[in-house]
Prior knowledge:
The structure is a single chain. With 170 residues, the chain is of the alpha/beta class. It is built from 3 helices and 6 strands. Strands 1, 2, 3, 4, 5 and 6 form a 6-stranded mixed β-sheet that branches. The longest helix has 25 residues, at 143-167. It is elongated. The model is unreliable at 10-27 (pLDDT under 50).
Amino acid sequence: MKCRIPINGFLTWTVLGLLLTGCKVSLSGISIPEAANTVSVENFENQAAQTNPSFPQQITEEVRQRFLSQTRLQVINSNGDLGFSGSITQYQTQSLALTGNETSALTRLNISVKVKFDNRLNPDKSFEKTFSRFADFQANQPLSAVESALLQEISEQLVQDIFNEAFLDW
């Protein structure tokens, strides 16, 4: 007599076996060490020649919120199992898409953030890297009129890039 295990039973036992052996299982694509319980996110600093004064705090809070909403890690102020610190290194606008009369139709807001990730559990996974993102807006609008929406768009992209770099093992 042959022993048959239905495929759904096989998958259940495989997943259960992996969980019981303490293996790192990732169904969402993120790979956070099992031993990690805490993450510290230090306040991002401004090192750019110009910036919106609220942007360093905005990106710091968005990084913290990403951990609170998408991981099991406890967010603490310093000395976490995993640690992030960073600074705004570029915050500038540039004219794009010149029209026939040599005026710009679009303006681009460029922001760069230098991030240091310290993985105290696996130092080989630590990194220091600069992430850059931009958003375009109509040149006939002053930056102050669209800045809040642009900052939200850019900071979401930057936080996703930082998170992916630290926790996606592609």
